[in-house]
């Protein structure tokens, strides 16, 4: 399309432009959708009320605040928030249609697409909700035994019978499992052969550690900070130490739901994207967010438990305090939210590494199927002022020195000395 044609299109009504923005950008909507919408001259949401699930974690903030601050109403929808007890519950309700969309683990959605985290379902990822902000917590019993980091943990484990120590993560294909396994393996601790591995829902982590059910866990905030405040554990590592500005939770749904409700999916993405930008605009907004999500209907803890790490103020429970340069981010000038294909592909490489999938999939094809860059770009246009990257891939260096850029995923997946 020539530039003059584009300028002509832009001069049409904003709503018609949004409906056609995917066409202008050269990407495709579902067959038949664009023509019918363009002919009707309407991008009105197919559903007005959208049931969105979330788990009580700090990183549910943008989904919650999209409703609390009424960003949803701006885009002609109403978000009905549904507090869920576990990631398994989120999975089941997404695929059954009880939830329209959810604040969900990146790897859970990819696992469903491949049929390894439940019966196979075609899934869709609309946007990334946050970067960073998870951690690995170890018990004060380990601290009393002289453990303060991964190296000292390895020595303690080596001196004990295999399976003596239990570590928890939140879902077998999820982000927390992958961060925990990566951290343990980097220290020479096999996450399956050297320790016992269990799944525990995020809000139950602290209580389970308190009664001695595990020696360590990986989970999102505020449940790492809560362990310190309750005097039962300390932060051995933050996940941003493992991978600075790593992808974390996403706004996920099923492919079928997007096919039936493309305008609604775009409106939902726009509302959550605008909430993400609002949160990251100022510390005052972050403090307001911490107070809001601390309520019983959401995370159900004190605002103080959430606020510190949300502002990047860390205390590891061992006497170290710092301002984290890679604290939890919800927007970061749009860099957080773009559904980079390489981000999704990374989780597949770790699923292959740990035997969750038997063979290398077509990494890029899977990512292109799930990550709806087309809808995200339309939503970003609707919101306005959102920077879009030049590429669907990004490059990152993890704490072991490995560079991940999505260029050779099979080689990357098979390059690790420790695997299952």
From TrEMBL:
It comes from the Bacteria. Pfam families: NMT1_2. InterPro entries: NrtA/CpmA_ABC-bd_dom (IPR044527), TAT_signal (IPR006311), TAT_signal_bac_arc (IPR019546). Keywords: Cell inner membrane, Cell membrane, Membrane, Signal, Transport. NCBIfam families: TAT_signal_seq. PANTHER family: ALIPHATIC SULFONATES-BINDING PROTEIN-RELATED, NITRATE_NITRITE BINDING PROTEIN NRTA. This is Putative nitrate transporter. It comes from Pseudescherichia vulneris NBRC 102420. The lineage of its organism: Bacteria, Pseudomonadati, Pseudomonadota, Gammaproteobacteria, Enterobacterales.
